Amino acid sequence: MISLTPRIVPHLWFNREAREAAEFYCSIFPDSSITSVVTVHGTPSGSCEVVSFVLFGQSFMAISAGPLFQFNEAISLMVQCDTQQEIDEYWRQLSAVPEAEQCGWLKDRYGLSWQIVPSAMQEMMQSPDDAARQRLVQAHMRMKKLDIVTLRKAHQGEA
Fold first, then answer.
1. By CB neighbour count within 10 A (0-12 exposed, 13-18 middle, 19+ buried), where does 98 fall?
2. What's the Cα-to-Cα distance from 139 to each of 30, 44, 116, 123, 145, rounded to whole Å?
3. What pLDDT was estimated at residue 95?
């Protein structure tokens, strides 16, 4: 029997902004909503707000538990986009730290890293043509926000 409850749910630690961040993310992505907000008392951090939410059908949890831990680039959330318009729009809404932008990665106002990538990138990276993959990687490494047309041209050897 298949369980409808996800077995792996990313859990994000915020200082005090868990609900605010969940509301922000839900305002950006389709098929998204906050499913519950619970306050837990008596933790080492005091009272903590625990927020459950769904983005694009993926379950997440977030906690407002104080400044003990900060986000870093060791983890990011990847958003696969079918069009340049999608890439441009997610980039516009999420990017808040221009100096952190590189190779399709950005950092949002809460310090969480995101990768905004074309869906076609995975297909191009799995090409059996090593030279095409190398051209793709080189083009990718020079970009901040990814450009689908430029990436395709590089992969095809047209750039």
1. exposed
2. 30, 47, 15, 16, 11
3. 98
pTM exceeds 0.90 for this model: yes
**CA within 13 Å, CB half, 37:** 12
The mean pLDDT value of the chain amounts to: 95
Q: One-letter amino acid identity for 79?
A: V
Beta strands in the chain (DSSP E): 11-14, 33-43, 46-55, 58-64, 76-81, 105-107, 113-118
- Non-local (6+) Cβ contacts of 107 within 8 A are 95, 96, 97, 100, 101, 113, 114
**C-alpha–C-alpha distance, residues 73 and 142, integer Å:** 19
